[in-house]
Model the fold of this input.
Amino acid sequence: MIPDTPGAKDLLDTAAADLKAEILPHVPDDRKLTVLMAIAAIQTSVREMDFLPRLEDQQQAALAQFVDNDIQPEGRAQALCDLIREGKYDSGAAARALHDALMRDVRARTAISNPKYLSAAEADWSNRP
Done:
């Protein structure tokens, strides 16, 4: 199938840019937050379009490291929760590996939902002794 152009991502990018450049400067101060929230929602949607499928693949690959591979992919998160409740990941190398995988997932999700926060937080983390 030949893709339609501009696509949804392009249209959303244009809408966010136009709201910011053309509309926001003319909005009364007491209403700007609403427009800024709309811009942020559009930008988050665009990032989700770009990264969510890859993130889901990465999450499934990570889950496969920690649960029995005979478990169907849709049941792996629940299986991991059960193993955590049973204490399997309370300490040792397995706990560290799980922690690292969860932190990678949190960083990836934060990069989608709030990349400015992630940049600031990582700068703060790198300045700590």
